[in-house]
Structure formats: structure tokens, C-alpha cells
TrEMBL record, chains A, B:
Protein name (database record): Probable 2-phosphosulfolactate phosphatase
Gene3D superfamilies documented for this protein: ComB-like
Organism ancestry: Bacteria, Pseudomonadati, Bacteroidota, Bacteroidia, Bacteroidales
InterPro entries, per the entry: ComB-like, ComB-like_sf
Catalysed reactions, semicolon-separated: (2R)-O-phospho-3-sulfolactate + H2O = (2R)-3-sulfolactate + phosphate
Cofactor(s) of this protein: Mg(2+)
Family label: Belongs to the ComB family.
Pfam family, one: 2-ph_phosp
Keywords of the record: Hydrolase, Magnesium
């Protein structure tokens, strides 16, 4: 029997939609899930997602490498904002990274209701689809959205992942949000960056002068790793 | 300055998305909002939306005309299930109708946070767009979804309404859910019933043998009235 893949468009809906036995793929294309995948691609040892800014500050005081940003501004104590471009091999190789953002890290905490939590982005799309096929579970793709609201870039990515899973013939997608994601992906895939131009978060990043992330966040299959949440830390599987 | 039209894909998101000064359009294509518009088209005097089944039962005991359904089954005490086809002129003309369903009536209660609440469906699409243009407010289209989850038929309708409003040049749509709705509507509009075939609620109605509602719920501009919520009751404006 085929396994089910669902899409959840908002953390606010997740509580009523998820089942404990699902693998949940956390998506925050702009920029948490992309940045986390990029850091692992470049050899980071582990990433600790932190919701609370003060907790992130304490980690910095203890000598950790810290990425922390709120409302488009890097926290004064932090080493980096949360954009993927910060996490080059010379900076992260073999290190522990503390990663704190309002949206993406909150979603990871919420996802922890499920059996397994993994991080998905265009950067590890194909590796992730292959990994999900090897698990023996239904899948739910949890879009971080923005302040609990639907967002385009996460939903389009969800469609890309659903499509890859359906192509393996091991999965079936019946929930309306998965079907809508597939249709949005079909509209976007031939000109992904062009399509995403209209997304609200695209505009916010432009205002914050953080445009450099956009292209990197939409780079396909740069990484073969799957960031998996284990005891509150993200570590790489492949 | 142009007014804003937004779309909210789930009552679970509404709390963080709405503003009190918006007009909210409640949508539940299968079947509450379609049925309510159809009943007004056929001369119902007023409709009282009721969430609680026991309260609906008490109205019946007091001699009211009652539509009440849960999980695809008409309540034993009720006159009708909640399908629009029940509300023909010979039945509803000049009457007060009690209308109780799990999903749609709950959404109406939630919507009451906003300045004005109106009911939208394909049956009153053009009249509704014209009415919204005449109001001096931003608009939020609240999709009932299903158990707080995203649903296709409501979202596609939201796209149809957003498109009509944009065409008047009085509105602008910037939120991602409005933009996604527009794209879904663009995919669906040339074969609306065909597109909706894949919707989960379409399948549920088939299982309940309630297929007769489908076409009626997608009939364009049958009604020129706008059901407006006033002191807990829906009455018609035009």
C-alpha cells in the first residue's frame, strides 16, 4: 500500500493535521531551512535551533558560534544574521552552530510532536526525497509560513517535494494542500525565481537588503545530507 | 489609494491575520455559503446560523424550519440536511431558517471579530464584488476549509473573487494566499467542475451521496443578494 504525503500550510494548522507517526519535513525556504542545509553541506557538526533570543545570547557568552536575527536585523551579540551565505566551510566546518530566528526555529519546536523531524529545502531536495522513500512512514511537509500565515515560497517547495515523492510511486497525495502545492509548483518550476518575485517574503528580504540569499535558497541539490532533529539538536544523516 | 483584499485559508489562521476594520467574506463552497445564498435567492426572510446541535433541536421544537447535519447525515429532528437544493422557493419564501453545520457556522462565529460579515459563493459572486466595491473597507476572504485545514474549493473561489475585485482597479492583492488563490483560480476557471473533482470534500460528498449539490454550488451569479450578519442573524442586502 502506498504511503501518504500531506502538506500543512501553517504551524497554526499543524496541531489538528499531524499524526504522531508521521515524519515531518520542516520547510522555511526564506531562510532557515535553506541555511541549515547549506551549513551541513559545508561541514557544520551540529546545529542547535533556539527560539529565545536571550538563550542564544547565553550560548554566545559561552563561546559558541551564533546566528541570530529578528525582523531582518542581526542581533547585536551574534556572529551572523540567519542567511545561508554566512555558513561557508571556513566558518562552520566541524563546529556547533546556534541558530535562532523568530519563524523557522518556532516551527521546528512545533514539529517535534512527530516521530521524526527533518529539514527540507531545494538544497537537499533529491537526497531528501530518497531518504523519505527509505523510511517506513507517512510524511507531512510543514511550511513555516510567516507569522502563521501561508507563504508562497514554502508552498511551492512543498509541491516540488510532493512531486518527487509521487514519481517514486511509493507515495500518494490526497490532501487538498498537497494538491494545491503541486499545482503551484507546476506554475513556478520553469521560472522559479521569476515566480517567487511576487512573494511577500521576497519583498521583505529586498527591503532588508538581504537579496543575496534568494538565489542560494533556490539552488537545487547542493547537499546530499538530511538534517535530523535528535534530542533538540540537528545532526546530519545521508 | 487602493484598498487591500486578503485571503485567509483557515479559521485557525484568522486570529493572527484579520483586522477588526475589515469586511470579512465567509466562504464554504461545499456547502454552507452556497446554500445560504441559494436560500436568499429563493426568498428566505432570514437565516440563523447555529453551531450547537442541541440549540438547533430547541429551535425545531419551537416550530422553526431547521437544516442540521453532522458528518454527512441529517440530524434526526431536522427538516433538511444542509445542501442548497433543499431551499427552493416553495419551502423557504418568507421564512426564518435555522442552519446548523459543523464547519460553516463555526466559521461565521469566528468571522464576527470583524466589522462586517457577509457570505460569499459563486451564486452571488458578481453582486458580492460590486457590493464590496461600494463599502469603504479592506476585505478579507475567510475560507472555512475543513476541520481548520486548507481546502481547494474555497481557495479557488477566493481567487475568483479576488480577480473580480482587482478588475475594478479599486483593490490591490499582496498577501501570498491571495496570490496563490489567483493562480489556483487561473488553473481551474476553464473547467471548474473538472478541477474540483480532485478536492477531498468533493470525494466526501460523493461518499455521502450528496453529489446533487456540486453543480448547484458552482453555479455563477444566480443571486443578486448579499447575506449580511446582523445581531447573529443573516439578512439580505442587495
Amino acid at each position: 500500500m502506498k504511503r501518504k504525503v500531506e502538506v500543512c500550510f501553517s504551524p497554526a494548522i499543524f496541531g489538528t493535521q499531524h499524526r504522531d507517526d508521521q515524519v515531518v519535513v520542516v520547510v522555511d525556504i526564506f531562510r532557515a531551512s535553506s541555511a541549515i542545509c547549506y551549513a551541513f553541506a559545508n561541514g557544520v557538526q551540529e546545529i542547535i535551533p533556539i527560539e529565545d533570543v536571550e538563550e542564544a545570547r547565553r550560548y554566545k557568552e559561552d563561546g559558541y558560534l551564533v546566528a541570530c536575527e529578528r525582523k531582518g536585523i542581526k542581533a547585536d551579540f551574534a556572529d551572523f544574521d540567519i542567511g545561508p551565505e554566512n555558513f561557508t566551510p571556513d566558518v562552520v566546518l566541524g563546529k556547533t552552530l546556534i541558530y535562532s530566528t523568530a519563524n523557522g526555529t518556532k516551527t521546528i519546536q512545533k514539529a517535534a510532536l512527530c516521530k521524526r523531524v527533518v529539514i527540507g529545502s531545494y538544497l537537499n531536495l533529491t537526497a531528501l526525497a530518497n531518504w523519505l522513500v527509505r523510511q517506513d512512514s507517512d510524511v507531512i511537509i510543514l511550511c513555516s509560513g510567516w507569522k502563521n500565515r501561508f507563504c508562497l515560497e514554502d508552498s511551492v517547495f512543498a509541491g516540488a517535494l510532493v512531486e518527487q515523492l509521487l514519481r517514486t510511486d511509493r507515495f500518494t497525495a490526497k490532501c487538498d494542500s498537497a494538491l494545491a502545492s503541486l499545482d503551484l509548483w507546476a506554475m513556478a518550476e520553469n521560472d522559479l525565481l521569476g515566480y517567487i518575485e511576487k512573494a511577500s517574503q521576497r519583498g521583505r528580504l529586498r527591503n532588508y537588503k538581504m537579496d543575496s540569499s534568494i538565489k542560494l535558497c533556490h539552488t537545487l541539490d547542493l547537499a546530499k545530507i538530511i538534517p535530523v532533529l535528535k534530542s533538540g539538536k540537528l545532526v546530519a544523516e545521508s
